[in-house]
Amino acid sequence: MAHQKVQTLLIADDSEINRAILSEMFIDDYRIVEAENGRAAIEKIQELDGCLTALFLDIVMPEIDGFGVLEYLHLHQMMNEFPVFMITAETDMKMILHGYDMGVADIINKPIEPIVVRRRLSNAIELFLNRNHLASQVAEQVQLIRRQADELRSINISIIDTLSSVIEFRSGESGSHVRRIREATYTLFSNISRIRPDLKLDQNAVEAISSAAAMHDIGKISIPDYILNKPGRLTAEEFEIMKRHTVYGCDILESITVLKQSELYQYAYDICRYHHERWDGKGYPDGLKGDEIPLWAQVVSLADVYDALVSDRVYKKALSHEKALKMIAGGECGAFNPTLLQYFLSMADYLRDTLYTSSDELGASQTSPLPTKYTAVSTAAENLLTQLETERQKTLLFSLLSDDIMFYIDFRTDTIEYTRRCKDLFPGPYRRIHATDYLQNNSRLLPEDLEALRCELKNITQQNPDIQTTVQVHMDKGEYRSFKLHLYFCFSNEASPERTGCLGKMEPVNEQQN
């Protein structure tokens, strides 16, 4: 049989008669504890230690009066643990209001009316219990909301990192670059008061800036692959196109309505647009200088330059930590805020030790799963990054062979991309959407070659993924030219693999013979 908790009333009154009257009223329903003065009342409260249901408290008592007991309850934050009834013969309104101000549930006037007091106690206890239950529910809901907010923040970071990694993979960089930029920004802004004590940033602002930092290069999605992945130095014209990624990134951000309503938006906009500005005004796209450049963009700029120097890129090998710092400090990477630069240099060893671990060493270009509290989100992110690593390898190969006539068809997105030489031979954009419809309606092959190719496509499997044949291609000037066509098909890693893409290469037959 379950043990029912005994409800206890404490009656604190220096009048033995009053204590007896109250005790007699409630003895059948409650355990009664008595105290003849304020000091004894405090001792009884301590002994009961959370097991008190209600307190009847006389105001005028020896040693410590009723207000003294109320002060003790306030000091030890116990006024919300049980209702307090103030017993008084006073009619002074000032004293009564003072009692209410100190949190008493009700005033019991002497002489005591048993029926009235019994009803007041019952109502007060019920109200008190309901209030505490509601407060408990509210506290639980607040904790749940905070926990969900933390989980949502973690998911948002994973989504931002994963989507930002798409850009890095297109440019032949590791998804770890995004993580390092975000975490470096977080570390630097967490200690920014060392150089900017006037800058009041709370934890939410620091996290928003760090998440925004991960999107610094999203505008590169609009830059052609042949420029992003060019192994050599960009021409002046190509560099002008590359510089536009700062503006393209802002255009993308402005198109996301829900993002514009968040705290993240302004930080992300500033970082996207201004992370290539320089302290002396020689950066781009707007030529801002000095403090015209938002501080968060300045911090991301330093972190981005450092990471670029110590990481392998398609156009260079990684430099050592020491060499990178020497170049940054010497102005070889442009001019930076002198105060911010010294702060960054003082933190550089710590950033190296914490962000470039043994599994992600300086100069490494490997992927690592993004951390998240949700297993499903983590798994999805890891799967996407695995696909992106395959995509990165494809684009690297694609760029290295850009002097060849090559194209890539992505069956998942129904797009087709061309190398520069392929585009020069067959004028048009570097990338087309609705590739299937375009190829069906714009075939340049002789009808008999096209039919033969369709027959060979039926035999393509994961074990037999390529086709080599010679075809006649209709050129823009009206003549047909012979090309050796080599197609290689990519497949998914699922139990029932499906074709995901096709890498094609064309070689003019006459060039082969020469």
From TrEMBL:
Coiled coil: none annotated. It comes from the Bacteria. GO terms for biological process: phosphorelay signal transduction system. Gene3D superfamilies: 3.40.50.2300, Hypothetical protein af1432 (1.10.3210.10). Residues 152-360 form the HD-GYP domain. The modification 4-aspartylphosphate is found at D58. The keyword Phosphoprotein applies. Residues 8-125 form the Response regulatory domain. Keywords: Phosphoprotein. The keyword 4Fe-4S does not apply. May play the central regulatory role in sporulation. It may be an element of the effector pathway responsible for the activation of sporulation genes in response to nutritional stress. Spo0A may act in concert with spo0H (a sigma factor) to control the expression of some genes that are critical to the sporulation process. PANTHER family: CYCLIC DI-GMP PHOSPHODIESTERASE TM_0186-RELATED, LIPOPROTEIN. This is Stage 0 sporulation protein A homolog. It comes from Cuneatibacter caecimuris.
